[in-house]
Amino acid sequence: VQLQASGGGLVQAGGSLGLSCAVSGRAFSSYIMGWFRQAPGKEREFVAAISWSGDSNNYADSVKGRFTISRDNAKNTVYLQMASLKPEDTAVYYCAARVRGSANWSSWGQGTLVTVSS
Predict the structure, then answer these.
(1) CB atoms within 10 A of CB 58
(2) Residues with Cβ < 8 Å from 41, sequence gap 6 or more?
(3) CA distance 30 to 114
(4) DSSP, res 15
């Protein structure tokens, strides 16, 4: 599958921003989808993931209660809605996919930059 993330930009602290990830290729609904981020000088970290059906998700503690992951299998798209943004949320955000039953995130998008100003 191929992933194309979009929606990044500059936002003030306390603001909101939504990211999208369009997925092309086979059987989107068979993939678990996730969002990761990498801040300058730091390692890539997990942000959120959603099951193939959309009825199960999990979040990093740092974003729990502020970010919401969702998916639309009819549109082959996964979303990340971010609210109450903080300067420490500044990072390049990546969407990723892994096949159900696999532990490996095998497909990655190109990343979209989110900058939160204080």
Answers:
(1) 12
(2) none
(3) 28
(4) -
